[in-house]
Design goal:
Blueprint: H1 2-17, E1 28-35, E2 40-47, E3 55-65, E4 69-76, E5 79-80, E6 86-87, E7 93-94, E8 99-100, E9 114-122, E10 126-139, E11 144-149, E12 152-159
Parallel strand pairs: 1-12
Antiparallel strand pairs: 2-9, 3-8, 3-10, 4-7, 4-9, 5-6, 10-11, 10-12
Length: 172
């Protein structure tokens, strides 16, 4: 019986460890040419809290080839544009300590989705990429948890002057 309990607990813990909630999955890649010293912002991660869940963002860390570039992260709530569309990436707020309030249980879809924006600033000529984001957060005031994922892989090529094109980004 003790072995069955240990096995059940191991299965439960492994399922929890691979849970990516509230991160939305990989969907695209984006390539941006930029001049050395200039910044490129892009939404790299979308989050969609479940109804009645409250998220507190603790920190974010870029994963990828970034030696020679600085990366800053911002929180971006969903805003409604003049046509009534939900847009993410237009409004940027400091990420650390942001609380994404719980949406009502009846809420569904884009009004619950928020984003994490990475701003990449190359300090030298070269190619840089964010292929993942390590996000630290608390769900409903619980313990700090770590989720790793990416929605949009971000590729940046930098030179002086700015290149006209980065070419087609390779899949990691």
């Amino acid at each position: 019986m003790r072995c069955l309990t240990a096995l059940a607990l191991a299965i439960l813990l492994s399922a929890c460890a691979t849970d990516s909630y509230p991160l939305l999955g990989t969907g695209a890649s984006q390539a941006n040419p930029v001049a050395v010293g200039s910044s490129v912002p892009a939404v790299v991660l979308y989050l969609q809290p479940r109804p009645d869940d409250r998220l507190e963002l603790v920190s974010a860390e870029a994963i990828g080839s970034l030696d020679g570039a600085d990366v800053r992260f911002f929180f971006s709530p969903s805003v409604t544009d003049g046509l009534g569309n939900h847009v993410i990436g237009e409004r940027l707020e400091p990420l650390v300590g942001v609380v994404v309030p719980a949406a009502p249980a009846a809420s569904d879809g884009p009004d619950r989705t928020v984003g994490i924006v990475a701003e990449v600033t190359p300090r030298r000529a070269g190619s840089f990429s964010i292929t993942g984001v390590r996000l630290r957060l608390r769900i409903n005031g619980g313990r700090e948890e770590v989720r790793t994922g990416i929605t949009t892989r971000l590729y940046v090529c930098a030179a002086t002057p700015a290149p006209t094109d980065c070419g087609v980004p390779e899949s990691p």
